[in-house]
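Notes from the 1:1 (GR / supervisor)

We went over the backlog. Supervisor wanted to see one worked example end to end before approving the batch request, so GR pasted a single chain during the call. The sequence is below; no edits were made to it. Supervisor asked that the structure be written out right there so they could see what the output format looks like.
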Amino acid sequence: MTPERRTALVKKKATDLGFEAVGVANLEPVPHREEFERWLARGMAGTMGYMHRQAGRRLEPSKIVPGTLYGVVVTKNYFTPDPPPPRDERSGRVAKYARGRDYHAALAEPLAALATAIKDLGDGDTIARHYVDAGPVPERELAQRAGLGWIGKNTMLIDPASGSFCFLATVLTDLELIPDQPFEADRCGSCRRCIDACPTDALPEERTLDSRLCISYLTIEHRGDIPEEIHDRMGSWIFGCDICQDVCPWNQKFAVPTDDPALRIDVSRAYEDLNTLRHTSDDEFERRFGWTALERPGSAGIRRNAEIAFENAAKARSDDR
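Structure output shown during the call:
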């Protein structure tokens, strides 16, 4: 079987499994090594120590799984329109991707099936290792290299057909495939909506994210107390943040709601009662959120976020009087 035929079969399998887009990227070294190393040196990874530990493999993806040659990159749409905000100001906001089943679990089965199909196209020793937002895989870099979109000024991958509200997943393999042409165009143009809309100024430069100021990082990845000087700029977000994507014209024009039942998106989970969250026990938290992405910061992290959002809501009410 020719590499062209294998590539066509892999792509068909990916779409049959429900992935919206699929492309093949080579695993050559990342071209912007100096920018990444400078980003780390400036401390912009915050407390994410794993970014430092994984740096070598992120910059040279072929080292992630020795012997692999290509990454089969797929996307999965998770967009859901925001429901009207509740009248009660004491409600915390949850990012769109976290309003249902944890995406790691939701994508595990179809991605494993894709990896199996790739192995079946090779011999008994064919490598096909799959990743969903885990390990040192530079997903956006490989997705752009696979022709699936460009990396916007907010550092998100933007698909010109559907915007940026999508999960990225990758299968690393040594199966001989035909790589796609990279998406070279920058279609952000002069637009700065994402940069200007960020309430914490977490985008100090185009395509540079200072994690230490990013609401998504602070509410999910950051451990311990959040610097008090940032509290009032976090608004009512208790898990993640969608602002830089919501204002993007590509999302406003082309994002369509997901119809995949595997994600079990529930728009009613866009807002959570802050007073309840502030006093939620560990056991109650696990019962309510253990199957969702909100488990990432744990009950203590969510209670911390809810306290900040509750304070902000109280200040807003006071200012209105």
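Supervisor's comment: The two ends are 73 Å apart (CA to CA).
Batch request approved.
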